[in-house]
């Protein structure tokens, strides 16, 4: 027996209306909030990874690796790498210099610079430590510039003792950018649009200098700018003094002519007296061997690396091979998170001056 059929719709019955809900106003206005939360969560997660990585890594030290020339010679020419953004502190560059300070067999240094610069204090620290070792040990220093040796990178290169024919730039090197920048961004108008105001309590009006969220009266803004300009001028004067020490053939007028913040090609820099020769790392090594009174048979050229840690062994990675110009043996934690992402974020948001060839401060560094 067939079941009774259900009555179908009447041909005269109008179709049921489909009601579309009107989108809530303001939905797009706040759609960026989940992305901000996700970004902050990612920063915290990466910071936690970095902390654990550093916990399981071997203590801060460097290992020596043979680079070229004689493998058995007792006298060494050490290649010191300053690569990436210079943030200061107890980074890889300082560890290399500490190793050289305790090694009497090192007779000369090849300073390999591939950096756009960094903080004023970080650049000055590396320059100071290298210059102190050179003076104490009477070491010869030859500079080898990589793809870029600008601003703080050039500042560091001036710790060469003022010798002749000691700064080598590759044909494609960019260098110069002699100058100082204190970045500042004003987000106060954007915050006002979403009804957020900076109501910080301070001990004085200048305590909030460079705050990106504080609205300022024109008089206070002008006062802040004069204070900041005086800081930049003072640090800029020191930068030019450092250049005069590292390039004694340049007088004050010649330094002023190139200290405009301009970036130069290798040939332009050579013509301006900022570098001596155009050549590669091996050319700088040969010059260092010559200055140290050694020969290819009596010199052992070495380079320093950080030891591989537990995370590198687990992942089976050595990121040096994937990073052009990076010293072999660079660990995962060094290359990906050489410093805590959270620490680097704090560095970036801290008002400070930079010897940096960039309009945007470096968020991550190589630990130089």
**CATH T-level fold name of the domain at 48-181 and 238-356:** 2-enoyl-CoA Hydratase, Chain A, domain 1
Number of helices: 12
Q: Name the helix and strand elements from N-terminus to C-terminus, one letter apiece.
A: HEEHEEHEHEEHHHEHEHEHHHE
- Return the average pLDDT rounded to an integer: 80
The top-level CATH class of the domain at 48-181 and 238-356 is Alpha Beta
As residue ranges, the low-confidence spans are 50-59, 310-340, 363-367
- What is the CATH architecture annotation of the domain at 48-181 and 238-356? Alpha-Beta Complex
How much of the sequence lies in strands comes to 15-25%
**What structural class do helix, strand and pairing data support?**
alpha/beta
Rg is 28 Å
Distance between the termini: 89 Å
Helix content: 25-40%
Largest sheet: 9 strands, mixed
Shape: elongated
